[in-house]
Write a structure and sequence with these properties.
The structure holds three protein chains of three kinds.
Chain A lengths: L4 E4 L2 E2 L2 E2 L1 H17 L3 E6 L13 E6 L8 H15 L3 E5 L2 H13 L3 E11 L3 E7 L4 E6 L5 E5 L16 E6 L7 E7 L13 E5 L9 H11 L2 E4 L1 H5 L20 E5 L5 H7 L4 E5 L7 H4 L2 E3 L3 H14 L1
Parallel strand pairs in A: 1-4, 1-6, 4-5, 5-11, 6-10, 7-10, 13-14, 13-15, 15-16, 16-17
Antiparallel strand pairs in A: 2-3, 7-8, 8-9
Helix pairs in contact in A: 2-3, 4-8
Chain B lengths: L2 E5 L1 E3 L21 E3 L1 H17 L3 E6 L4 H11 L3 E6 L7 H12 L6 E5 L10 H9 L3 E10 L3 E7 L5 E7 L2 E5 L11 H10 L3 E4 L9 E6 L8 E2 L3 H10 L4
Parallel strand pairs in B: 1-4, 1-6, 4-5, 5-11, 6-10, 7-10
Antiparallel strand pairs in B: 2-3, 7-8, 8-9
Helix pairs in contact in B: 2-5, 3-4
Chain C lengths: L3 H30 L10 H13 L9 H29 L10 H31 L14 H4 L2 H31 L7 H7 L7 H22 L10 H10 L28 H9 L5 H5 L1 H4 L6 H20 L7 H4 L3 H6 L5 H5 L6 H14 L5 H13 L31 E4 L2 H5 L1 H16 L4 E3 L9 H5 L3 H16 L5 E4 L2 H10 L8 E3 H11 L11 E4 L13 H9 L3 E2 L31 H10 L6 E4 L2 H13 L7 E4 H8 L10
Helix pairs in contact in C: 1-8, 1-10, 1-13, 2-9, 3-4, 4-6, 6-7, 6-8, 9-10, 10-13, 20-28, 24-25, 26-27
Classes of the chains: A alpha/beta, B alpha/beta, C mainly alpha.
Chain lengths: ~325, ~250, ~675
């Protein structure tokens, strides 16, 4: 086992996802602790090596059928890289793609595993802090002295720390053959939405506290005064009250507006993941213990209807 | 197509949870266990597949206090068989649980295993891919749509931003369900009670799940950070918005 | 008076039409017996007498629509008297020389009455026909999204009304004209027949032979029509003449707030028409299709597809068209397909207004609960309702919150409320879900606690041991969950020592009083009754409140269901506040829209105006009003929301009675302003 940290790059539709750079930044810091190198595993994204200047080394796997993510072929490719490189820590994103890779690798390569990680430290043993129980508790685990896999939460580290210029060496590994039990068919893009919320400066987001489809009107009126768009947490979209394109969160979109007003949103990690990057977060919720107040910059323990109405009125008078 | 649904109970997050004296576990007295909501979706998807194309649905869960009601509820919803795995004490994590389940799965004839995409107490990974790796079968996580084929399933895997990936998987295999095609159906209490009188739960002795390969150091509530600056009136709110240049 | 040939002809007509009619009535009897069992025939004689008195005094119809009820009473009393008239006319036809004209004072009185009633019937009937066909009130129409049988949608009810109306006009008109022709033939009027005498002058120029023909023609029109009309009865709402008194006599004798149990646990509720109990089938034959029930229904008023009237009317018209096939072992139709829809069934708030107002004793609400039972058993509940039912099952409350937080509201008090599970108390306070978990209602709970504490009342609560009493759970059709909650609550109560129970929630009150029966083991009262009693005994002292004008909203489950109208009013006035009544008060109170599990469900897409919003507007129409007073936690939340959503914030304040009492106790009870 080397002391290297292997960061599994995540990419889709020709672009490297932010989480790759987040992990690269965190990986470099971790590699400094272990005394090894920070290596990036790039599976099926050969043209992206130029963006990975922050890595010490890149191990790339190319092959037919690797251009689109496939749990089986990408999983086999990763296993091959790990067998060859024998890193101490493998960093995978705690994402849709990452879930298909991490546990499988850990079992096959007989490695310890911690998921939903906020941070990783290395000393004699590797310890990780996982965010669990809906964000209510952070659990610190000791993964032992041997090799381990850590699944990193999106937004747990700054992405800029992983961006740098450079031309690291690229090593190629042959794509291993697979049994071909999982076949990628196609990607399905979401229906063209009415509004692109990622392009908005101000967002007024509604959560379960809105109670009722008709009451979204209250948020819409406020949004109109602020020249903003209405966004939503998952339950609102699942109920069909707003189109999927308005969903902010882990399985929706990530937004970084100037101002994010969260109305009746409790602040579950899956949603916070999508909006924690906003410059100013204002949360309004009747539950003073709602986790959203931990990530918000400003908060009000008030009925969102009262606040919206008054605020809308005040803005109209101006 | 015969499916097996793996059900796991997790602490109900609505309760006031606290870390106990050891610092490594939750205070048991306040813990209320509830079925992992994603496992409920997995069960719903299994029942829908059965309604579409026949076959049997078997649910499996570890024995714990009050688990019987959960299993009878699954039967009341339309599952054909419910298996309670006994003799295994508290399980330390996903790897250990997967070990127990994989062992039991060996003795159930099945085409497809369904379980929830994740659970709120998944310290060491997710159940679906772990079980699949144990059994040496393929797995796809974050599934929102399943269609049965001949010896295969066609599924939709959800990525960020609402993008879906369509895959075809040869069976047997495991799927981690994010959401069933429709909300989990309601099991009326009277039906559950009737099933409790008429049906029986199969009991299977479980073998230990092996080492989880990790140990918990400490559990803490998240750092509150500076926390939000609380505002007392809409005037103050307007002042904030003003200062950010948005009005 | 009739010739030999005529007499034979009439007998034949009677035999034929009577036979057809009898067959029709017997068929209806067989249809009704297809329904499920129901215990309704105890003390039958007393029931019949009571019903006849009710009908005789026109009590049930006079509850609404005063002018229409007046017109109807003309027709009713006229027709009731006409039974004698028709008997007399048959005698007159067959007994030579028999006539009531000029036959002494007794016959004279009879004639006077028949003359007067004839005119009244004609006036009344014309008025009713003008109302239906010229005025065309909206209340006789249904929301466009209400399911209607094809005949009904095609105007069958109007046609029926026209046929009946014209028949009455012709029958009574011809009889009265016949009298006028008779007088003209006699050559002079009769002081006992004032109106007919006036009419007779118009026929003065006719020849005796022509007049005699006219008399015979009128007799045949009058008597012939009524006999010919007999076979039409089974197809017409006019059948209510016979079925309504029967339906009223066979009403449930159990308390309103107690639902009937499930007849067949393996198939609870009703899916097919004949799954309903037989009274529900009799209802469809009693229905007069007046739409009074629809008029008072909060669900229909707010634009949803629910119409209790359409439900009964659809049943009737389906049966009219299909009784033969149904009786020859045909298949009964599915209620949620032909009579109403699932969305409509879920729109019901179970406020009981439809049952209360029905002049013929129909219970459309009961049918809807039966349909809900069947849907729940099939797992067909709206998603958000299913979530709440699961929460009630797992946590004992409808808020999805931890059971351990149920008594958290007590933390704002500076004294500890005794735990009734651990110590004996005089009064056990069954708080209820909303009063425990909803932030606004928690304030009221604290106020009530402070009032009782200041008055030195020995009371306790069950803390986390309390679970929802299950009133609305039962009304959503989840019988199994209701049973489960009841069992647990009864067990908890059995382990406590108390003399009386009171509650701040009318729904809880109804469940404990009517659904739990003897298992509670103590008298149950609403907190307004308790407070009034304390006031009257001097344990509670009021030093005058801050006055103002208030209107009081009667909660459905306290007022209409359980007759609790007076205690709240007495309390409000004792607090020095002027009480003004809304048009819809007491039994006619208009539901806030939260009951029957509605507060757990999403609004229907077709919603026009929420019932609570309509009610606030009603209150504001009373002129300057300071307070809208409630005595139910759900009313509190519904109406405070409605004040805001109708843009009337600041114009009227929604207050609970407890707040008035606390104010009027002076400094004894701190009452935080909302």
């Amino acid at each position: 086992m080397s002391q290297d940290v292997l960061v599994v790059a995540e990419h889709g539709q020709g672009e490297l996802d932010d989480i790759t750079f987040e992990m690269l930044g965190a990986g470099k810091a971790l590699a400094a602790q272990t005394g090894g190198a920070c290596v990036v595993a790039l599976i099926g994204g050969g043209q992206l090596t130029s963006q990975l200047g922050g890595a010490d080394k890149i191990v790339a796997v190319e092959g037919e059928g690797l251009e689109n993510f496939n749990p089986e072929s990408h999983g086999a490719a990763l296993a091959a890289i790990v067998e060859q490189a024998a890193p101490r820590v493998v960093m995978v994103g705690y994402t849709s793609m990452g879930m298909d890779l991490a546990s499988s690798l850990a079992v096959r390569a007989d490695m310890a595993h911690a998921a939903s990680c906020l941070e990783v430290q290395a000393g004699d043993t590797v310890t990780a802090v996982s965010q669990l129980y809906g964000g209510k508790f952070n659990v610190k685990t000791d993964l032992g002295a041997g090799p381990c896999v850590v699944s990193m939460l999106a937004g747990s580290s700054p992405a800029d720390a992983g961006r740098a210029d450079g031309a690291p060496a690229v090593e190629t590994v042959a794509a291993p053959a697979t049994a071909g039990k999982v076949r990628f068919v196609r990607l399905i893009e979401p229906e063209a939405g009415d509004v692109d919320i990622t392009a908005q400066e101000i967002l007024v987001a509604v959560g379960r506290g809105i109670g009722n489809k008709d009451d979204i009107e209250v948020a819409e009126e406020l949004a109109e005064e602020l020249d903003a768009a209405v966004a939503a947490s998952r339950p609102i979209v699942d109920s069909g009250w707003l189109p999927k394109g308005r969903q902010v969160g882990k399985s929706g979109v990530k937004v970084t507006p100037k101002v994010y007003i969260a109305l009746g949103i409790s602040g579950a990690p899956e949603h916070v993941e999508g909006m924690k990057g906003a410059a100013t977060i204002i949360a309004i919720n009747t539950d003073r213990n709602a986790p959203i107040f931990n990530v918000a910059h400003y908060g009000m323990v008030e009925d969102l209807f009262d606040v919206c109405e008054e605020l809308t009125e005040e803005l109209q008078d101006r | 197509m015969n499916t097996v649904v793996l059900l796991k109970r997790v602490p109900d997050l609505v309760e006031d949870l606290e870390v106990d004296g050891s610092g490594r576990a939750l205070v048991a007295e306040h813990l209320k266990l509830t079925l992992n909501e994603f496992d409920e979706h997995a069960l719903e998807e299994a029942l829908l597949l059965k309604e579409d194309g026949g076959g049997e649905v078997t649910v499996v869960a570890l024995d714990s206090a009050d688990v019987d009601k959960m299993l009878f509820t699954a039967l009341a919803k339309g599952a054909d068989r419910a298996i309670k795995v006994t003799g295994v004490g508290a399980v330390g994590g996903t790897r250990e649980l997967a070990g127990v389940f994989s062992d039991v799965l060996g003795s159930i004839s099945h085409d497809l295993v369904l379980t929830g995409v994740q659970a709120s107490d998944d310290v060491d990974g997710q159940l679906a891919p772990t079980v699949a790796a144990n059994l040496g079968v393929p797995c796809i996580e974050v599934i929102t749509g399943v269609e049965a084929g001949a010896g295969t399933v066609t599924v939709h895997k959800e990525y960020a931003g609402g993008v879906l990936g369509e895959f075809e998987m040869t069976l047997p295999g495991v799927l981690g369900i994010q959401a069933a095609r429709q909300s989990p159906r309601y099991a009326p209490v009277s039906r559950v009670r009737q099933i409790q009188e008429s049906a029986t739960l199969d009991e299977v002795a479980g073998a230990g799940g092996g080492d989880g390969r990790f140990s918990i150091v400490v559990m803490t509530p998240p750092k509150a950070g500076e926390g939000a600056q609380m505002l007392d009136s809409v005037e103050e709110l307007i002042a904030v918005l003003d200062s950010k240049g948005v009005i | 008076m009739l010739g030999f040939g005529e007499r034979i002809a009439f007998v034949l007509v009677v035999i034929v039409c009577g036979g057809l009619a009898t067959r029709g009535f017997l068929r209806i009897g067989r249809i009704v017996r297809l329904g499920g069992p129901a215990e309704r025939t105890d003390r039958l004689a007393a029931r019949l007498i009571r019903a006849l008195i009710e009908v005789g005094l026109q009590r049930t119809i006079a509850k609404a629509r005063p002018l229409v009820s007046l017109a109807h009473s003309f027709v009713f009393f006229g027709f009731a008297f006409y039974l004698l008239v028709n008997v007399n006319d048959v005698v007159e036809a067959y007994v030579e020389g028999w006539s009531t004209i000029g036959a002494g004072p007794a016959a004279g009185v009879f004639n006077l009455l028949s003359d007067l009633f004839s005119v009244l019937v004609l006036i009344g009937m014309v008025a009713l026909l003008v109302r239906r066909f010229v005025v065309k009130p909206r209340t006789l129409e249904f929301n466009s999204n209400v399911i209607l049988q094809p005949e009904v949608a095609g105007g069958a009810v109007r046609r029926d009304s026209l046929i009946v109306g014209v028949f009455i006009l012709l029958h009574v008109g011809a009889r009265w004209l016949g009298t006028a022709f008779h007088l003209a033939h006699d050559g002079h009027g009769d002081p006992w027949l004032p109106a007919a005498s006036v009419m007779a002058t118009a026929f003065a120029g006719m020849s005796p032979d022509a007049l005699e023909v006219a008399v015979h023609v009128c007799w045949w029109l009058a008597m012939g029509l009524i006999v010919l009309f007999l076979p039409y009865f089974p197809h017409s709402k006019h059948l209510h003449l016979m079925v309504a008194p029967l339906n009223l006599a066979l009403r449930r004798s159990a308390p309103r707030g107690e639902l009937d149990g499930v007849a067949d646990v393996s198939a609870p509720g009703a899916r097919a028409l004949t799954d309903l109990a037989w009274p529900a089938l009799l209802d469809s034959y009693a229905c007069i299709m007046c739409n009074r029930c629809q008029e008072v229904c909060p669900a229909h008023a707010s634009g949803t597809p629910l119409s209790p009237a359409a439900l009964e009317i659809n049943k009737r018209y389906w049966l009219n068209a299909n009784s033969s096939s149904l009786l020859s072992a045909g298949e009964a139709p599915m209620l949620l397909e032909f009579a109403t829809s699932p969305a409509a069934a879920w729109s019901c708030t179970t406020c009981y207004a439809c049952v209360e107002i029905c002049p013929v004793g129909n219970e459309p609400m009961v049918d809807l609960v039966q349909m809900r039972r069947a849907m729940i058993f099939a797992g067909d509940a709206p998603d958000e309702l299913a979530e709440v039912l699961r929460s009630l099952d797992e946590k004992g409350n409808s808020f999805g919150q931890s059971a351990r937080r149920r008594a958290k509201w007590t933390r704002g008090l500076d004294f500890k409320i005794p735990d009734a599970r651990k110590q004996a108390v005089e009064y056990l306070w069954y708080v209820g879900d909303f009063a425990s978990y909803d932030p606004q209602c928690q304030e009221i709970s604290r106020t009530v606690a402070r009032i009782l504490h200041a008055a030195g009342v020995d009371f306790g609560i069950l803390y986390e041991g309390e679970k929802s009493a299950g009133n609305d759970v039962r009304r959503t059709g989840e019988e199994g969950l209701f049973e489960s909650l009841t069992e647990q609550n009864v067990e908890t109560l059995a382990g406590c020592e108390f003399e009386r129970i009171f509650t701040t929630d009318p729904h809880t009150f109804n469940a404990l009083e009517n659904e739990y029966g003897d298992e509670v083991g103590a008298p149950v009262e609403h907190y307004t009754t308790l407070l009034l009693r304390l006031l009257e005994s001097g344990e509670l002292e009021l030093n005058g409140g801050d006055g103002g004008r208030a209107t009081y909203h009667d909660p459905c489950y306290l007022g209409r269901y359980n007759g609790g109208f007076d205690a709240p009013r007495a309390l409000i006035e004792a607090c020095g506040t002027e009480l003004v009544e809304m048009p819809r008060n007491r039994e006619q109170s208009f539901c806030c829209g939260a009951g029957g599990g509605r507060i757990w469900m999403k609004d229907h897409d077709d919603l026009t105006e929420r019932p609570s919003e309509s009610r606030i507007r009603e209150a504001l129409s009373l002129g300057p009003i300071d307070y809208f007073v409630v005595s139910c936690p759900k009313d509190l939340t519904m109406y405070r929301d409605a004040v805001k959503s109708t843009g009337n914030d600041g114009k009227i304040e929604v207050r609970d009675i407890a707040e008035f009492v606390a104010d009027a106790m002076g400094g004894a009870v701190p009452c935080p302003s909302v």
